[in-house]
Amino acid sequence: MARVKLNLPEEFEFSTEIRVRISDINYGGHLGNDSILSLIHEARVRFLDEYGFTELNIDGFGLIMVDSVVLYKSEAFYGEILRIEVAADDFSRYGCDILYRITNKETGKEVVRAKTGIVFYDYERKRVVEVPEKFRGIFASK
Questions:
Q1: Which of 26, 29, 57, 69 could bridge 115 with an S-S bond, Cβ 3.0-4.6 Å?
Q2: Neighbour count for residue 28 (Cβ, 10 Å)
Q3: DSSP H or E segment with residue 131
Q4: Where are the domains of the chain?
């Protein structure tokens, strides 16, 4: 079986902490795979907010997630505090990747590596648009 690989940057622009909720736990007693996208969504919203953006207003445009990759590295359990690091990378004309590294805050053990591909979108005109210059200017040079 071929494994997906996901290279992460050496440095991340942003990090946040989220405690594992009881609703994040599956029948195996650990963090469920279905909760990962929810956790990285929350981290992405906090990341954007740090720079004065929202998912619906990044210099006048929104974003749409077009793909995702999740690599599971270890378990996480109810009540643990996860550190989620976030970075923007691999810019194209219309979008970029948002990369995530999730670690256990106490032990430093890596729990998940993830990526969400995003494109920028004009919700009024219902079309993809080029990466807003303000966003590109902040992150493309890092």
A1: 69
A2: 8
A3: none
A4: 14-139
